[in-house]
Amino acid sequence: MTKRAVVLSSGGIDSTTAMAMAKSKGNEIYSLSFRYGQRHSTEIECAKKVARALGVKAHRIIDIDLRQFAGSALTADISVPKHDRADQLATDEIPITYVPARNTIFLSYAMAWAEILKAPAIYIGVTAVDYSGYPDCRPEFIKAFQTMANLATKTGVTRETLLKIETPLIHLSKGQIIKTGHDLGVDYSLTISCYDPEQDRSCGQCDSCLHRIKGFKEAGIPDPTPYIPIKA
Residue 3 contacts by C-beta under 8 Å, 6 or more apart in sequence? Predict the structure, then answer.
């Protein structure tokens, strides 16, 4: 029987690399993305491009509205913090770009699809090295969700399919992630990381852009990202 895996895809570096890694292990890929009220739709367009490039079996885009709860610079009228360098990023606090319960919600949808597909794995591109400060990117959260998933599903209770939440990037830095994806043939020009892009160009100053820039430098690989010129 063909191995199946549901892969959460945001159109960014991490989820795209996780998808490439899942495919390299012989999985038939079912890609899952969300329009959740985020500031821009560019990441969805990138997720579509990634799905086509990696030859997924199916790509679902789910519409939910986390703007109803706000509380994040990605879903409310709150400015996205900007910096000049990666070493200016705070590492001891949860950033305002954290979206409450986002990964819990996303994984719940993925769990439902995996149950229908009888897929034993969900891949999510969280990492705890270049720590984003997001509580739902921690290994403790992933472990707890996996336990819950196998208690909450028919296939888990009957043990027909025990679900595993795969986090292949969890111990990799951004540079290591990019190097891994590059070795697997990932075209990172199809991806976007920016929290606040303009017309498909990345700002180059948000937390996510700075981690991306730093990662490409560490990997020694040219960054294909079109950035908005920074005004002097």
Answer: 25, 26, 27, 28, 120, 121
The separation between CA 114 and the C-alpha centre of its own chain, rounded to angstroms, equals: 18
Amino acid at 29: I
Please provide residue 4's backbone torsions phi and psi, each rounded to the nearest 5 degrees.
-120, 145
Per residue, the 3-state secondary structure of 109-126, as one string, reads HHHHHHHHHCCCEEECCC
Query: Can you tell me the distance from the alpha carbon of 22 to that of 5, in angstroms, rounded to the nearest whole number?
Result: 7
Q: Identify the bridge partners of residue 61 per DSSP, sorted by sequence position.
A: 33
Token output for 222: 């040219």
pTM score, whole prediction:
0.93
Tell me the domains of the chain and their CATH numbers.
Answer: 4-219 (3.40.50.620)
pLDDT confidence tier of residue 62, bands split at 50, 70 and 90: very high
